Amino acid sequence: MSRKAEVVRNTKETQIRVAVDLDGTGASKVSTGIGFFDHMLDSFARHGGIDIEVEAKGDLHIDMHHTVEDTGIVLGQAIKQALDGFKGVRRFGHAYIPMDETLSRCALDLSNRPYLIWNVEFRTPKVGDMDTELFKEFHHAFAMNAGACVHLDLLRGTNSHHIAESGFKALARALRQAVELDPKTHGHAPSTKGVL
């Protein structure tokens, strides 16, 4: 069973292609034009154990908002497509990720009832050239389009780089658990409804 997908989204603001393989090795090929965001997506692939290709061209002469949000949309859509109705997966995942003084927690449910609880505050307005407020935009777009209920909490932390990175790693590790195939589901969606 192949759990791969490719999604392309072209608008007046962005042109984005994302390909994923849920059963990959964490390999990534990412180009968004935003250095720190590329670093986060590489980390997401590596710690999620998901092969990811991201090619994004956006209106960076205006700002980074459209590129970051739309990448979250397309990545979420690709993962949902690869999940093929959430059949046979563990569905739930969670992770605690420490990074120096920072500790982040993510709990995730592939419920097809998208939601985001974002309990994360940054001490600075930017990491590198990237506005820290855009991290919430990415996670919201990802959750809504992946059909995932995501709770991301910063338990402690002061360094904005560490806060952002531990959050991405926590999401990736939680997703890694949730997309894992569970033989006890016998290939069905893990829900009393029989479908998600």
TrEMBL record:
Pathway: Amino-acid biosynthesis; L-histidine biosynthesis; L-histidine from 5-phospho-alpha-D-ribose 1-diphosphate: step 6/9. Gene3D superfamilies: Imidazole glycerol phosphate dehydratase, domain 1 (3.30.230.40). GO terms for biological process: L-histidine biosynthetic process. InterPro entries: IGPD_sf, ImidazoleglycerolP_deHydtase, ImidazoleglycerP_deHydtase_CS, Ribosomal_Su5_D2-typ_SF. Its EC number is 4.2.1.19. Keywords: Amino-acid biosynthesis, Cytoplasm, Histidine biosynthesis, Lyase. It is found in: Cytoplasm. GO terms for cellular component: cytoplasm. The keyword Cell division does not apply. SUPFAM superfamilies: Ribosomal protein S5 domain 2-like. Pfam families: IGPD (PF00475). GO terms for molecular function: imidazoleglycerol-phosphate dehydratase activity. It catalyses: D-erythro-1-(imidazol-4-yl)glycerol 3-phosphate = 3-(imidazol-4-yl)-2-oxopropyl phosphate + H2O. Its main location: cytoplasm. NCBIfam families: PRK00951.1-5, PRK00951.2-1, PRK00951.2-4. Belongs to the imidazoleglycerol-phosphate dehydratase family. This is Imidazoleglycerol-phosphate dehydratase. The gene is hisB.
